[in-house]
Write a structure and sequence with these properties.
single chain; Thrombin, subunit H; Aminopeptidase; 3 domains; four-stranded antiparallel β-sheet; elongated
């Protein structure tokens, strides 16, 4: 990643998309961000003080004037489709409001074509998102939860940018994004976690939720909320760009993983208790934002919440809901049965106790109706 065309001029590139140069034998350095498709560079080489080449994930850049300008030949490389993985747990009362817990599943190293284990970056975040889906699927929440693993983060936040852009164009209501990226390295046993929330009040509120979780459940973690100077080098930044609240949970920058982007980013070097507690904090934060739906304390079958034992009016209420009939009081066209025929709580209409939204199986049979 370093080349020296003469004794005074040295060039170096980074995986973060930076190109560094010095003309006085490393006394002073200049930083460039050459135009690239991904901003992820691997090698820089200068044949002399003017002619140089820079290679990346899909880039081949050339300069003929000592780096003053660069020609991008990246189009000679084939393009590859990258897929985001999205799972959804529909909300009960506010299904149109989305809470997202996310991590990127791609990784890289100094030898990405052959080996990039990426245990911390970002197998750790991806595992936490999978665990979130496993745990939370058995519960109901007022808001919809989306569990997303993004592609192409290492190549420039490609997957999250495409998702956030599409969500904005569709007018999606995203109330918060918890992005987990590198949550398993702890080098000094202090257990600091950084919550990069930026300067937006709604994003900072997400960090406050995570801090509250840590305090409430006495997790052995020390949260640090980063506002001014918060990093934009992970998928939460794509949501910031479209005005959505988002935050990044990441390990301590001051005790940064020395195996980052190398073939030694392995499970064996990670701190699993720290990782477990970090994952708990992230999962609980998403659950709180989604507003857990209360356990059913109502009488199943008292569909219209009138009180007392179920009666014929409850049957009529449930049948009208199931077959999406219009409701006169209050006025309702019948095009949205959940709003036309509300259950408060929804378990009142879950007559057979199967869980979820009331359906035809909950409607009493002939004998039950005759009994009523």
């Amino acid at each position: 990643m370093v080349t020296a065309p003469d004794s005074q001029k040295v060039w170096a590139c980074t995986n973060g998309g930076e190109l560094l140069s010095t003309t006085n034998a490393e006394t002073n350095w200049n930083i460039q961000y050459p135009p690239g498709n991904t901003g992820l560079f691997y090698e820089v080489y200068f044949a002399d003080t003017l002619q140089g080449w820079l290679t990346g994930y899909t880039e081949l850049l050339q300069t003929t004037n000592g780096g003053q300008s660069w020609i991008n030949h990246g189009s000679i490389f084939p393009s590859y489709q990258k897929l985001n993985v999205v799972a959804e747990l529909p909300g009960v009362g506010k299904a149109g409001q989305e809470c997202i817990i996310t991590a990127h599943y791609d990784n890289t190293s100094e030898n990405p074509a052959n080996l990039a284990p990426g245990a911390d970056d970002n197998g750790s975040g991806t595992a936490a998102v999978l665990e979130a889906a496993k745990v939370l699927k058995d519960y109901q929440f007022d808001r919809t939860i989306k569990f997303i693993s993004f592609a192409g983060e290492e190549q420039g936040l490609l997957g999250s940018y495409a998702y956030a852009q599409k969500a904005s164009q569709a007018g999606d209501t995203i109330v918060g994004v918890f992005n987990l990226d590198m949550i398993a390295w702890e080098g000094d046993s202090v257990n600091v976690i950084e919550l990069h929330s930026g300067t937006g009040a709604a994003s900072q509120a997400l960090a406050d939720i995570t801090t509250g979780v840590i305090n409430t459940y006495s997790l052995p973690l020390i949260p640090q909320k980063i506002t001014i100077g918060a990093t934009t080098r992970s998928d939460h930044a794509s949501f910031w760009n479209y005005g959505y609240p988002a935050m990044l949970g990441i390990e301590d920058f001051d005790e940064f993983n020395p195996y980052y982007h190398t073939t030694n980013d392995l499970l064996s070097v990670l701190d699993l208790p720290y990782f477990t507690n970090f994952a708990k904090a992230g999962i609980a934060s998403a659950a709180i934002l989604a507003e857990p739906y209360p356990a059913c304390l109502a009488v199943p079958g008292d569909v219209n919440a009138s009180g007392g034992i179920p009666n014929l009016q409850d049957v009529i209420y449930l049948v009208n809901f199931v077959f999406d009939k219009s409701r006169v009081t209050p006025p309702c066209s019948g095009t949205d049965p959940v709003n036309c025929w509300p259950f408060d709580p929804i378990c009142r209409g879950d007559v057979n106790g199967s869980g979820g939204t009331p359906n035809l199986q909950d409607v009493p049979g002939e004998q039950e109706v005759l009994w009523l």
